[in-house]
Every structure is written in structure tokens, then in C-alpha cells.
Write a structure and sequence with these properties.
The complex is a heterodimer of chains A (168) and B (297). Among the domains of chain A are: 32 residues; 82 residues, Ubiquitin-like (UB roll) (Roll). Chain A has three helices and four strands, in the order αββαβαβ. Chain A has a four-stranded mixed beta sheet. Chain B is globular. Chain B has eleven helices and ten strands. Chain B has 297 residues and is of the alpha+beta class. In chain B, helix 7 runs antiparallel to helix 8. The chains are: A alpha+beta (168), B alpha+beta (297). At the A-B interface, helix 1 and helix 3 of A face helix 5, strand 7 and helix 10 of B.
Chain lengths: 168, 297
């Protein structure tokens, strides 16, 4: 089995200074998602281990063994942490701290729940609408890992939240 | 070429799946078992609505029906192999924001593969007592559709302008076309949103007419509902896209093991030479995403 460390993300911004108004990323200039570069697919150590394991499974058990070993690699919770940065829109309550680390295997619904709790709305009927990159509302089912991979900016996922519908 | 496009689009919109629905109330008695043919693009809640008005109403007293809260209903997928249903007997709920065609492919190809035969997907329609009563189903189906349509727009064009510029009645028309599975009404609006195949564009369009899409939005659904999402450049074959997004299952030619899975879209195993931008223009879900079920060999 692979003994490799899970792949590490670029260093996370830890000091609040990084998020001060002066240095904070300007939402207007945050670009649209770019297609992923094809060249940079596999150079991480755990992927190399996985490939070796799949080859071994293939030699021993054929295609079925190998495909199940490959599936296991995709299922494995990577346990990477992603920074989610919250930004209130309009009259939405403001959070004490606006960025949090969260494991990338979580679903977006966890973020919504967390946000409701932090804003003191857990037991209220007040709706909370969440958007990524000021553009669209992710499905509660989407994993943080997918959102980070597709829409992450500078090591974090930007979640805009509002108590009324913001972007249609 | 343009007629090819329309042909494949209408295949996509007009194809159906068969369902075997046991209707249960309060989790107890089976009221009825219904065989139902549903358009692949329709959402489960629409199926419930059709059943309610067309069928349940004529077979059951209005008393029984009046006590049903539309937002309490849910679908359970039955007939799965033991290993799949999670250990502690949690029923496998049908995802209400997946098109029924996608659920059909996911469950049939993964767990009930019969060669050259498309068995009905067996579901239980529970009329009450949902474990966790969700929000209003119709509203959340619509929100989820509009949400992923905007997401796919952002990926295609780098902006959601094309949607925000729609007039309210156009947005309503688009949603109505989804509810009524009306392909002509849908493409009246969706032609403003979805890319044309590159080959058509080069031949028939002026260069400045419509910009080329930047990227293609893809979701790969693996067994155990593992979803891998990716954003890839348009000029790729499916083979290239798969070996980029899922390199372990679709290894490069130099690999010491063969391809371990195959992609299914709208009930069909898709040839790997297919061009992903062509697939996106012809066979994407109405919300613009290309969603493949990845089936292990």
C-alpha cells in the first residue's frame, strides 16, 4: 500500500495580515476559471505509489483487481485542508473571522451549516444564499476538493453569502 | 453538419428510461406498482408530479391524496447489491437534482449490468416520512438547475453575463422547457448559452460572431458516487480528457496496464475519439455540464 504523504498544497496564508483590506484580493479582478494545464497531471508521490499498486494488482488479479485498486485511490480521503474565505454581501451578518480551514473531503453543505452557525442563524428560518467567486451557487453536494480544484484562487475558495438572492 | 447537430440533440432530448415505481405511504403498505417511462432529462420531482396528476388521482380517493405533502416525498433506490447499501441499512435515496437519465445510467451500468438489455430502474416512491425533510422540492430543483447552469456558463465563457442578461420571462421560459421537456423552446434560449461545435463555427460563422468557449465543464461520476469535476480546454478528445482527469483509470499509452473503465453518457458508451466540445454542444445536460458515468471494466 502507498505509504506516501498526501500531496501538500502551497503554504496556506496563516496570518490575518494577508487578509487585511490592503492585501486582500480584489473580487473584481479575480479571473474566470482557466482550463487545467494538461502537462501537470501526475508528479506527486502518492500518484506514483498508486500507479505501482495498480500495476501490481493488474499483474495479480487482472483488470478487475486493478480497476478496484484505482477506485480506492479516488475514494481515499486526501485530508488536505483548503482555506474558505467568507465575504458577506448586503445586509448579511458579518462573521468574527472570515477565513477557515476545512478538509477538502467535506461537502459544500457542511460549509453552509457552519456559516449558519457562525452567523447565529442555526435555529432561524432566515435563508442563506452562498455563491462561489461571485458567480454561482454550488450544489450542497459538491465537494470542497472539487470547488477548490476548479475555482480556488490563491490557495482559497471564496464564498460570498447573503440573506437575500444576490446574483439571480 | 448542422442537421447532425439537431439530430443528436433531439436523440438526447427524446430518449427515455423505464422505471418501476412502488408507491408507498408512511413507509408501510405498497399502494401501487407503476411502470413509467421518463425522459432522460427530467428531474425526479417532475416524475412525481406527473404520477400524482395522471395516475394516483384516478386510482385513489382524494382523501388519501390530500394528506400528501409534496415536499415530503422521496425516492428510494432498491435492488442494489448488498455491498453497496451502506452497512447500517440507510436507504439509498435518489438524488433529486440529478436528471433521471443520469441516475438510471449510474445504477444500471454499475450495479445491474445486463448485456443488450435495459431493465427498468426499481424505485420506491415514499409519499411521506422523509428522514430529513428537505426544502420545497420544486423550488430547490429549480435553484439547483439554475445554479449549475450558471456554473457551466462561467466555465464556458468566463462570465455569467449570458444568463444575467436574459429577461425574466426568458429565464422562466427556459425553466418551463425543462419541466415540459420541450426541445424547441429550450434551444430558443439555450442557443444563446451553449457553444456550437467548433467545426460548425469555423465553416458557418463569421469569426466575430460568437466567441469560442474557453473551457468545457465536466463531471465524472465514479462508483460509490465519487464525483470528480474538471475544467478542460475544448480541443481535446475524450481519451485525452479522461487521461487528464482520471489518469489512474485511463492511463497513457506507455502504461503497464490497460484502460480500466469506460465512459457512459445518455446510456451509451462513448467512443474515446469523440471530441469533448462536440459532445458538449450535442449531448450536455440541459444545465450545460457533460456528466459521464465512469463504469469499471
Amino acid at each position: 500500500m502507498s505509504g506516501g504523504e498526501p500531496p501538500t498544497l502551497p503554504p496556506l496564508p496563516t496570518s490575518e495580515a494577508l487578509f487585511s483590506p490592503k492585501n486582500s484580493p480584489n473580487l473584481d479582478t479575480i479571473g474566470s476559471p482557466q482550463p487545467r494545464s494538461i502537462a501537470s497531471t501526475q508528479n506527486q508521490r502518492s500518484a506514483v505509489d498508486d500507479i505501482a499498486d495498480i500495476e501490481a494488482a493488474y499483474n495479480e488479479h487482472g483488470v478487475i483487481g486493478a480497476s478496484h485498486r484505482a477506485l480506492e485511490a479516488y475514494r481515499r480521503k486526501e485530508g488536505r485542508k483548503v482555506v474558505v474565505r467568507f465575504k458577506a454581501i448586503g445586509a448579511a451578518p458579518i462573521m468574527k473571522q472570515n477565513f477557515y480551514k476545512i478538509s477538502d473531503s467535506n461537502k459544500f453543505s457542511t460549509v453552509i451549516q457552519f456559516l449558519r452557525k457562525e452567523c447565529g442563524l442555526s435555529n432561524s428560518n432566515c435563508p442563506v444564499f452562498c455563491y462561489v467567486n461571485s458567480a454561482f451557487a454550488p450544489s450542497p453536494d459538491d465537494s470542497i476538493g472539487n470547488l477548490y480544484k476548479c475555482y480556488g484562487t490563491d490557495g482559497h475558495v471564496i464564498v460570498n453569502y447573503s440573506t437575500s438572492v444576490a446574483w439571480g | 453538419m448542422s442537421s447532425d447537430l439537431n439530430y443528436f440533440r433531439s436523440l438526447n432530448w427524446n430518449s427515455t428510461v423505464s422505471l418501476e415505481l412502488s408507491v408507498r405511504k408512511d413507509g408501510l403498505s405498497v399502494l401501487d406498482t407503476v411502470y413509467f417511462t421518463a425522459y432522460r432529462n427530467s428531474y425526479p420531482f417532475f416524475i412525481y408530479q406527473q404520477l400524482k396528476y395522471a395516475f394516483l388521482q384516478s386510482n385513489h380517493s382524494s382523501n388519501q391524496l390530500n394528506s400528501i405533502n409534496d415536499d415530503d416525498i422521496w425516492f428510494e433506490v432498491v435492488d442494489l447489491p448488498e455491498s453497496n447499501t451502506t452497512a447500517n441499512n440507510i436507504p439509498d435515496k435518489l438524488k433529486l437534482h440529478w436528471n433521471i437519465g443520469l441516475s438510471y445510467d449510474y445504477y444500471t451500468f454499475n450495479y445491474n449490468p445486463l448485456k443488450n438489455h435495459a431493465p427498468p430502474l426499481k424505485l420506491i416512491l415514499h409519499l411521506s416520512n422523509s428522514a430529513d425533510s428537505a426544502a420545497a422540492h420544486l423550488q430547490s430543483t429549480k435553484l439547483s438547475f439554475m445554479g449549475s447552469l450558471k456554473e457551466s456558463q462561467l466555465i464556458y465563457w468566463g462570465t455569467v453575463k449570458r444568463i444575467t442578461q436574459l429577461k425574466t420571462n426568458q429565464t422562466e421560459q427556459l425553466w418551463h422547457s425543462i419541466q415540459s421537456n420541450d426541445i424547441d423552446e429550450y434551444f430558443k434560449i439555450a442557443d444563446k448559452l451553449l457553444p456550437l461545435p467548433l467545426s460548425i463555427k469555423e465553416k458557418e460563422m463569421d469569426d466575430n460572431e460568437t466567441p469560442k468557449p474557453r473551457s468545457i465543464p465536466l463531471k465524472f461520476i465514479l462508483p460509490d458516487q465519487i464525483v470528480i469535476q474538471d475544467i478542460l480546454p475544448p480541443k481535446l478528445t475524450l481519451q485525452q480528457a479522461l487521461s487528464t482527469s482520471l489518469p489512474l483509470l485511463f492511463p497513457s499509452d506507455s502504461s503497464k496496464y490497460p484502460q480500466l473503465a469506460y465512459p457512459v453518457l445518455h446510456g451509451t458508451a462513448i467512443p474515446l475519439e469523440a471530441d469533448i466540445s462536440w459532445l458538449a454542444s450535442t449531448m450536455a445536460s440541459p444545465d450545460g455540464f457533460l456528466r459521464f458515468c465512469i463504469i469499471l471494466n
